[in-house]
Amino acid sequence: MPKQKAERYQRKRPIVVAFRVSAQEFAALKERIFLSGKNKATYILESLLKQKIEITAGKFASDRLSLEVKRLAKALEIKDVKEDLRELLFECRELVGQLISLLKK
Predict the structure, then answer these.
(1) Can you tell me the distance from the alpha carbon of 88 to that of 68, in angstroms, rounded to the nearest whole number?
(2) First vs last Cα of the chain: how many Å apart?
(3) In contact, 76 and 93? CB cutoff 8 Å
(4) Are 45 and 53 in contact (CB under 8 A)?
(5) How far is C-alpha 35 from the geometric centre of its chain's CA atoms?
(6) Rg (Cα) of the chain, in Å, rounded?
(7) Cα separations in angstroms, 73 against 4, 37, 42, 58, 76
(8) With 90 as the cut, is the pLDDT of residue 40 above it?
């Protein structure tokens, strides 16, 4: 019986993300949500996932990012992939190459 209940209540989004805010931040957030006309979850998800990401970092963070991007580029050089993934991996590898060249400047 418990297994059937668990299957019946499986959620589309089972993971909870929580963070703390001050009273002033909460009031400002509630006001923005109200003005947007969206529900809280939609507003927060769109705010987080659809914004432009800008990387601003000092030399240390920039060097770490450069190493991670190079590691990703090596990981994308997979030999045995299906044809439908080959084009996607090629595009990813090209983008990583462009990132590496930008980081070297």
Answers:
(1) 20
(2) 62
(3) yes
(4) no
(5) 26
(6) 21
(7) 44, 42, 34, 22, 5
(8) yes
Amino acid letter for position 43: Y
Report the distance separating Cα 74 and Cα 85, nearest Å: 16
Got the DSSP string for 27-65? HHHHHHHHHHTS-HHHHHHHHHHSSPP-----HHHHHHH
Q: Are 103 and 65 in contact (CB under 8 A)?
A: yes
| Tokens found for residue 80 | 């045995």
Instruction: Please classify residue 103 by burial: count the beta carbons closer than 10 Å to its beta carbon, then call 0-12 exposed, 13-18 middle and 19+ buried.
Output: middle
Instruction: Reply yes or no on whether the pLDDT at 77 is more than 80.
Output: no
C-alpha 63/C-alpha 103 separation (Å) is: 8
pLDDT in tens, 88-103: 777 777 777 777 777 6
d(CA 93, CA 70): 10
Q: In this model, does residue 57 exceed pLDDT 70?
A: no
* DSSP 8-state symbol, 12: S
| Residue 40 CB contacts under 8 Å (≥ 6 apart), including other chains | 33
